[in-house]
Amino acid sequence: MESGTLAQAMPIVAVSSASLLRHFSILLNVGALGISLLGFLVICGWSWRLIPLIQLHPSWVPMQFNTALSFVFLGLALFGLLHGRSVIAQFLTGLTTIMAGLTLLQYITGLNVGIDELFWQHTVIVQTMSPGRMAPNTALCFLLSSLALWLLSQRHRYPLVLSGILGALVIGLGTVAIFGYWSGVESAYGWGKWTRMAVHTAGGFILVGLMLIGEEQYFARKVGYRLPALTWAMMVGIMGVTVTLAFWQALGANDFGKTPAATQAFPWVTSGVLVFGLAFSLTLAIAVWFSGQFQAQVVALQAAQVKILSLNEQLEKLSYLDGLTGIANRRMFDLTAERELGHAYRHQYPLALILFDLDYFKAYNDHYGHLQGDHCLQQVAQVIQAMARRPTDLAARYGGEEFVLLLPDATLSAAQGIAEKALREVGNLNLPHPTSKVSTVVTLSAGLTACVPQQNTDIRHLFKQADQALYQAKAQGRACVVALASPPLN
Predict the structure, then answer these.
(1) Does residue 309 or residue 201 have the better pLDDT?
(2) Confidence of residue 269 (pLDDT cuts 50, 70, 90)
(3) pTM above 0.90, yes or no
(4) Is 401 a catalytic residue?
(5) Concatenated DSSP letters for 55-86?
(6) 10 Å Cβ neighbour count for 58?
(7) What does 349-391 look like in DSSP terms, one character per residue?
(8) Helix 65-82 crosses helix 17-48 at what angle (to 10 degrees)?
(9) How large is the average pLDDT for residues 343-351?
(10) Annotated catalytic residue: which of 2, 216, 401, 425?
(11) Which domains, ranges and CATH numbers included, belong to the chain?
(12) Nearest 10 degrees: CA dihedral of 46, 48, 53, 59?
């Protein structure tokens, strides 16, 4: 019987889910700590006046102290969620929300609530509206990230989906800012005359967005929920639309620093960017949706394959079991006997065979009926099954009221002891048998043989010897054991 069929098929279907989650968790932990490390390095830059950590280029915007501190909080919150510390994560998220919310409030109302330099006096103020004040798009990204983190902590289906969508928005805003630095379009990383987003802040938000989507996937898989293909399509589409609209707005603002105003020479450029960007985003989202649908079908087919293999294996196992007693059947005995005979011949150890027969079982059935007869067979089968104590021993129902016990590496005397014990145990069942001619309870007769197989020994020879011994046991009055050594074949 090919018992390893299913086990061999499993690696084709998928990598172990537990192993995949474990490796994914390690990657997410590294990402979360990386976000906190980014903020910590900038805080060190402010503390020790290490300008390259604060401002990557003399003409670029520095990362504000509050921004760096918020990155530390966000990274630790993401790390805490991975380790089940939801309360700590929500507390750190709340601190980030307060700083980002107060900053946006200052931009909206024109007030100064004292949050900008609450923790540090800023000396690097390139393209900064007010010393220490984070950019409005930076504050917005922190608010979106904080909301996504709160949704992640809920661990439910729809909050998880929404957290991934918010992560896609954060990635989009960070990507636009990075592209603005690369292309020289200043309004891509700054809104109006307000503070601009630093380039490493933009990079940090791309990592934060990826982490939000990653933790969405992690928690969804952990609770056994597979995100639908539409969710991935929405995230990709929203990311593309965010990048397109933000860059279109930047082009429309006609703010290119020292570069020529390309939109004045080519008025169709901004419209073209908008149309192309939206069309590309829609096309990419549809492609992702189709890809997700295809993957879902592949997963479903693989799951069906595993189920079919499992059912086939179960059917194969059942084909080797007796339907009434639950022990091995004649087919199983025939296969096992041939195999064990070969082993015994190669290693030259004895092979013993015991045949059991219920005494006057036809009379028992006539007296009690077939249902009670079946119950009797089941109890006797369990007794004989208990005699097969070693992994290589096999107890089987050979047919009707006959049972067989195969004992590799057992001598004739050892097998006789086992047969006698089986007879005693069946007698101890105290199953009434008023029509028996040898006892008032159900009894067994047993015939057995044993030999060290030679080249021309086959299982039929052993079985014939055991059957002859059983015949002698019946002739001697039943309820007894007869052992016959198997003579060598000429």
Answers:
(1) 201
(2) low
(3) no
(4) yes
(5) -SSTTSPPPPHHHHHHHHHHHHHHHHHHTT-H
(6) 9
(7) --EEEEEEEETTHHHHHHHH-HHHHHHHHHHHHHHHHHH--ST
(8) 160
(9) 93
(10) 401
(11) 7-283 (no CATH), 330-485 (3.30.70.270)
(12) 70
